[in-house]
Structures are given as structure tokens and as C-alpha cells.
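Q: Predict the assembly, please.
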Amino acid sequence: MLLEDLILDIHSVYKDLPIGLCCLDTDFRYIHINEWLAKINGMPAEDHLGRTIGELLPKVAAGVVSQFRHVIDTGEPIIGGTVIAETPDQPGVKRHFEHSYYAIKSNDGEVIGISCVVQDITVRFEALEALQQSRDELEQRIEARTATLQIINEKLNQEIDQRIQVEEALRASKTEFASILDISADAIISVDEDQHIRLFNQGAQQIFGYKAREVIGKPLEILLPEQVRSLHRKHIEKYSQSSASSRFMSLRAEIMGLKKDGTQFPATASISRIKLQGKTILSVYLRDISEIRNIEGAIQKHREELAHVNRIGVMGEVSTSLSHELNQPLTSILFNAQVLHRLCQTGSPFPNEGEEIISDLISDAKRAGEVIQQLKALLKPGKLHKETLDINQIVVEIEHLLRSEVLFHQINLTKELMTDLPAVTGVHVELQQVMLNLIMNALEAMNSVDACDRQLLIRTRQPTPTEVELCVQDSGNSLKKQSIKQLFNPFYTTKENGMGMGLAISQTIVNNHGGRMWAEFNKGKGMSFFVNLPVAGAEAAAESSIEYKHKNKMEEPDKSTVFIVDDDTPVLKALSRLVESAGHVVESYTSAEAFLQRKHYTGYGCLVVDLHMPGKSGIELQSELNNHKYTMPVIFITGAGDTSSGVTAMKQGAIDFLEKPVDGEKLLGLIARAIKIDFQARVQYEQYRSIKEKIARLTPREAEVMGLVTKGRLNKQIAYTMGISEKTVKVHRAHVMQKLEVRSLAELIHVSGCVTDIG
Amino acid sequence: MGNQSVLISIVDDDSSVRRALGRMISSFGFKVELFASASNYLDESDLDPACLILDVVMPDMNGLQLLATLQESGRSVPTVFISAHDDEAYMEKARSLGAIAYLHKPCSETVLLDAIEKSLVSSDATGS
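A: Predicted assembly structure:
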């Protein structure tokens, strides 16, 4: 078969395929070429025939001739080569071709030609390239991502390190905290919202005698004496649920604690409230103060003993007066009795002269009795109780006592006592003692002065609305060289037999009464000693250190009611009449129960109640009233000599107590004072209530800011603590000031202090 | 015992003691005049008593000063001091002034009467 025929057969098959086919003879002449390839070459197929590739495509030929030669020589095909070329039918486009060259062999195996197969692989190539590009991109992205991941990983590692540090610190502080809890000798107890114990430190275990596991989960009240349990539970409940969310609110109280072995002990406790993850936790800090109480008790006892010794000493110095005071009435008694005796023997002295004599006998006996009472009171050691006193009256009492002394020493005594001097609260015997000391000192000082120059002036006045001042001025020879401070030192004395305690003790007494004592040299001769005491009812006002302008003026109330409760009907009637005569509205009841039946009284007033009554006693009534949030002042009437009940009453907050038979004037004085106190307390309570309301209007954030501000933190610190900006802090702060209607930090602190005080 | 013509004057600032003394001495049968103070006596007594009973410690002028004043002005009379104070200095002064007696309160009527009688005897002796 001829080559041409063979090729034609094959090519007619492949004519229309998109694939290039051609055959060349051993001289590289085109024997056959298909349409596709001819198009590629840019010439009709017929024009190829018989011409060499070199002639037609010199450039291509240069590249392929050696390969052709190889195929012809070896008879082995060369498959899969590639070439990039531009073709005339698509000028400007770089095309990729894949070509394979095969040897055409005759039957004998002789190579007679070359068959070429060409494929346009541009698309394929581009796809490959794109694939490669995207692979490259992917790798880049992966690299970048890896880098990022590395950084993130590093950061995480850092965070983990930090977290580990923080955890360690937390652990350390937990340990520290736990050890603080435990080192603390005081009790730290935390309870949950239901007042069950969750935490009970070493100190608590020591103090109460329980092991922690014995009390965890049990109610807090097992640590309190039975009779106060419900009271405290309510108090704590109220505090724990109170709406203001500020963390800084706390309750402080002096309580009696109950140990495991059943003994009770005095303690101070303070409760703080923390909101933790929506739950309220109460933390109780408690300190056993039995030791302190013992010491206080010892100090008090010591003070009383010392005062007693001083009193006796002073009394010794006034023995002249005393004997004089006693001897006068005894003289009269003796003479009168003897006259009466004789008259009875010789005839009847009655009715007239006898009556007169007997009347004198009685009054002289009473007079002697009073002197002895005074003496007894001054000499008796022991419990001193406070009552309302008139300084002017005490001056008169002491003047009376010292009348002979004054005359004996030929002193010219002048009194300038202010009329309507307000009353003070104090221990009668102690204030008498102070005055005694002062006057005796003055007398001593003037001994060395000529009799006509001995001037003693006693003056009382009210230098400010809340103070009463006593001045004892002498004209003695005081050594100006000595310092006034020295005078008040214990053991300082110029008397031969003096102990030197008088002024020191007097000053202590005055200080304990909330007053002060000092001395000055006069312009002329001698010295003046001053005693300044707070007006009764003004002691509480004197304690507050920040001035808060009250929006309401403190006025006297005009409508007030006095409630009198006494089972003894004649006494009840008499007291009612007395109190009504002083202008009060009176409501009288024969029993505590009857009084409690009355619907709740909302005006001003006070309660006068008998301590001992069948059924509910006065003390029980007082306790019941104390269970309400606020009650009116109570004055107790006790049986003669029943001081211990009176003291209990005072401890529970009574204004005062009077012994039967009741001194009308004293009672009216106490009532007036009680009503004033009630009025002022109610006004104050109203103010506190309005403050509390205003505080309740604060948002939690504002309340938090308020808490920190009143603790003295700077805005910067507050911002840091709360994790907000300083600007926000300022905004909160302004809102707080606005809502509470205060204008300065001092007012704010005062207002917040007021609220914590009442809990 | 007493003689209504004999005047005894009493000076004591304590009203109850004054009254009692007055009763006592009246009951002895004497005439009595009562004075509340030394100046009261100096101003208002017209007759000199046969015996003067004086309290010692009194405001303004005490008993001793009164006697001294009387002696200076020649109105001296026998004097019995009766005092609630038993001060040595006072007693010494009383003695130096020539007092008949210095009695301590309280004293019984007998003691008082004795002293009065001694005064009367002495005044008799001096012929006043």
C-alpha cells in the first residue's frame, strides 16, 4: 500500500477532529495535513503538500528538526513535548501546544515518515497556571494564618501565665484571709439570707465554745440568749432586706452572747451586708467585751470609792457646820421638851402654849432629820444615779450646809444666781461635792487675808442656750506663780493635812457629766473657778460634731399628752390632777393592758408609769413599747428604796425614775423635759426618714459611688474601683448630691452617717 | 425661882432656838426679850438686862464682837454665851471678855439656869 493511501485513510477519519495531524516524509515534506493544523499554520492544507516544514515554518522547523531526525533514526516516538507559540490565525496570543511525533513504518519496519499530533493545550495550561496561582495564594494565606495563629497562641500563653499568677495570688490571699480569719481572736461569722451560719472562724469557736461543724447550717440565733432571739432576728431581717443597695451600711450593737455552756457574756457586734452574685451575705464581727466590762466596772468602782473618800474628807472639813446644824434643832428640842414637861407637871399647858411647843418640836426634829439625811447621802458610798437638777438649788443647799463655816471664817458671801436657770442632768451628791470642794478651797484661800477683805462670790448663768455655768470667785492670796494646770493635778495641795485630791476629783466628776472645769486668776486678788455643764437634754446635741442646719426650727410643741399608768387609783387621780394643773392633756389608765388597748397615739407626749403593778409591770410595758420602732419617753415611779428596778428601767431607756412619795415639782420638771425630748426626737426621726427615702431613690451605681465618696476616695480611685471613667463618676456624684439635696461633701457625709446610725 | 422684874435678853439668829430659849427662860419666871441679831439688840434694846444670853456665831456681828462693843460703850452686862461651836479660840475670847459662862448647845435647862443664877449673883455683886 502506498503511504499516501494509508495516510488518507487515517486522516479522513481524523479530518474534523480539533486536533492537529500531519505527516511528513523523511525529507520533512508535508505529505498530509489536516484542516485544523493547517489553520494553525495559517495556510490552506493544499499549500503545505510537497513543501518542507523548513520552507513553510522556519521558526518551528528550527525547534523540531532535531526531534524529527531522532524519530526517523530511532523509530521511537517523542511524546508529550510542549511549545509556546503565536499563530497567525490568532495573532498576539501566546498559545500552548502539546505535540507528539511518531515514526511511520513500512511493513518491513523501515521508517518512511513521521506522523505528528498536535494539541492546543492553552486552556489546560492556563487552568494549570491558575491552579498553581491559587495554590501559591493558598500557601501564602496559610503562612499568614499560621503567623497570626502563632501570635494568638503566644498571647494565649501569656494570658494563661497571667491567669496562673492571678490564681496563685488569689490562693495566697485566700490563705492569708483564712489565716486572718483564724488569727483573729474576735469572732467572724458569716450567715446567708436565712440567717444560717456559713462561716465560723477560730475566734468564734474560741469565744462561743462551739466547733465550726457544730454550728454551720444552724440559725445565728443559737448564739444569743433566748429572750432576745426574736427581737434580733427581726432586726437583722429588716436590715438584710432593706432596699438601699449600698454595701457600706452596717449595724452596730452591744449585745449579750450565749456560749455553748449556757453562760452569757457582753459583746459588741457589727453586721455588714454584702451582695454576692445576687445573694445577700451577712458578715458578723463580734468582740467579747467581758474583760473590758470588768475593767470598766473596776474603774467605775474605783472612781466611786475615790469620790467617796473625797466626800468623807470634805465632810470632815465641814464638821463644824454639821455639828452646828444638828445642835441648833437639838437645842430647841431639848429646851422645848423640858418646858413642856414642866408645864405638864405643874398644870395643863394645852391648848395654846402646848400646841405651839409641840409644833416646834416636830419641825425641829424634822430639821435634824434632814441634816442627817444630807450627811448620810454625802457619806454613803455606792451607786450614783443621774437625775434632773437645778444648780441654783444646789448652791443654796451647800450654802446652807456651810453657813457656819462662812460665818466662822467671816466671809462675805454674795450670790448672783440667774433666775430660771435651765436644769442639768447629773448625780446630785457628786455635784454637791464639786461645789463643796470649790467653796472650801475658796475659804482656805482667804484665810490669810484680812477678815474685811474676804469676798466670796457664787454666780450662775447661761452663757449659751445649751450650757449652764457656775463660778466661784474668791479674794484670797493665790500664788500667781503656780500654774493653773498644776492646781488640778492630783496630790497637789497647799494644805498641811490636805490630800490634794479635791480639785482633781471635782474635775473628773464635771468631765463625766459632759462638762468642763477650769480656773482663772482674777484681775484683782484671788481666783475664779468655773464649772460649765450641758443643759439637760443638750448632751446628745453636744456630741454631734458636724453642724447640720435643720430645715425645721426646733420649737416647743403646743399639743402634747401625758399618759399616766398606775394601778393605785387615788395615786392615779392625784397625779392626773397635778399634771393637768400644769397645763398638759392627761390620759390615765389603771393598768398597762388598758393603756396598750388604746389606739396608737401619733402626737407628742410622754408616759408616766408605776413600776410595780399586778398583771403587766411597768418594765414589761416599756419592753413592749421598745419593740415598736419608736416610742415616747417613759418616767417611772418606783416604790421607796427600790433603786435596782429603777436602774433596770434606765438601762432600757427611761428618762428617769422617781421614788414614792412623788415630788410634784420634780415630776413636772421631768415631764416637761420628756416632752421636749420626744418632740425633738420625732422631728429628727422625720428628717432621718426623709433622708432614707432620698437615699432609696439612688440607683445602685449612684449608691456605690456615694459609699466610696463618703469613705474619702478620690474620683480617680472610685473610677478605678468601679471600672468606669472619671467623668462618669462625676456624673453619678452630681446625681447623688442632687437627689439627697445636699450642697457639700460635709453635708453628704453627715447625711450618710445619720442613716447608718439608725440602721 | 425667877422674878418677873428681872429681865433676861436673848440674842440668837436661829428663830427656833430663840423661841425655845425664850420659852425656857419665861418658864423660869423671868421677863424675856428676844433679839434676832446683834445690831437688832444694839438698836432696839432700851433696858439693860440683868443677864444677856448670846449666841456666838451670827451673821454681821457675832456674839463676842457684840460683848466687846457693849463693854466699850459701857453697857456691859453679865453675859452667858451659848454656842453650837466649841471652838477653842471662841472660848478663850469669851473668857478674856469676862463672860460668866460658855455653854455648849444642846444643853439642859439645869445648866442654863445655873449660869443665869451665877450672872444674877454677879450683877447683884456689882450692884446693877
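Chain A has 27 helices and 22 strands. The interface with chain B takes residues 320, 323-324, 327-336, 338-339, 342-343, 353, 357, 360, 363-364, 367, 404, 407-408 of chain A (CB under 8 Å).
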